[in-house]
Write a structure and sequence with these properties.
The protein is 0% helix and 22% strand. It has strands at residues 7-9, 18-20, 31-33, 36-38, 57-60, 66-68, 79-80, 85-87. Its main location: nucleus.
Length: 109
């Protein structure tokens, strides 16, 4: 997070998010358009697709990341809060002593 630099609004008409112009280049899935930019909350961070019929995007509540609401795109370790919001795996905090939070090694994915 920064406190300096120009702040711009996402060009998607339904979006109310604002970003520092200097931060946008670091955000995966930012799309540049004539009107400015479309923020990463409008494209899946796994497959980079915007619109997939019948599959909505779930947004992380802690960072500007979104994933299709499917087993193929949501990253392991993410915690779904409801049908629209999640906490992505980048914010997962393992609880010591919780067997569900221990690592599992698999030969295949």
């Amino acid at each position: 997070k920064q406190s300096d630099g120009e702040i711009k609004k996402c060009a998607d008409k339904s979006c109310r998010k604002f970003y520092h112009e200097s931060c946008l280049s670091d955000l995966k899935c930012t799309r540049w358009v004539k009107a400015g930019f479309i923020c990463p909350l409008h494209a899946c961070a796994t497959c980079s697709m915007q619109d997939v019929e019948g599959c909505k995007l779930m947004q992380c509540v802690r960072c500007p990341v979104a994933y299709h609401a499917s087993d193929w795109c949501i990253v392991a370790g993410s915690q779904e809060l409801n049908g629209q919001l999640l906490v992505c795996s980048g914010h997962f905090k393992a609880v010591k002593g919780n067997s569900l939070h221990s690592r599992v090694n698999l030969k295949r994915c």
